[in-house]
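Extended Data, panel c. Modelled sequence:
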Amino acid sequence: MLLALVLSFLTALLLIFANNPQGETISSLSWAGYIISRDTNAKIQVTAMNASWTIPTVVTSASDEHSSVWIGVGGQLDNTLIQAGTEQDVSGGQETYYAWYELLPAYAVRINTLAVSPGDIMVASLRLVDSSVNRWNIQISDSTTGQYFGTTVFYNSTRSSGEWVIERPTVSTKLSALADFGNVTFTSCHLATENKSGPIKSFYFSRIEMTNSVNTQLTSVSTITADGEGFTTSYIQAQ
């Protein structure tokens, strides 16, 4: 996510969710990864989620290109989405990397106390601390450097979905070109609801592939690993 940019509510609406059986691949113009949105056809209420990934090195290009790696709660078909992640962009021929969090519809908050670099191993978590007042704890740390950021926020989320996503964000009201991030592997992907907790495969999940407007794939998302808690997303093309 870019500082001073909001992920449009329309991004969430680009996902096609109706009547997807377990494990079906669905399409999005901006997201790639996995989403948990219901369990045996019943609505879920997410209370916590986490994941780890290594910040990729993006390929420098003459054009501006962007990529966001994040975990999020909500946002499936509504305008509530709480997120934490990292940004890997190319602008003016220069690479930019930073950590951020966001509470839609507010702007993304760049975490200046975390100086992140390609190759750093990141760990992020979102946790509902007190449902009576909608208090959340956001944590993101750099395991490579030992840096840590944590904050408590108040946010009213539907909690109806949980996501592990690579995104090409909306820039100046338009979908950006996707930066060539190579490959990103999510590990330790766990989610908790009011009734149970476990890795991705413990829940009703769908795989999301990013496509352009003529349905050409921009990414390739692997199947979930044997332990049920990881996957790899690979870059194919910018737009």
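DSSP finds one helix and 21 strands in the chain. This feature is highlighted in the accompanying rendering.
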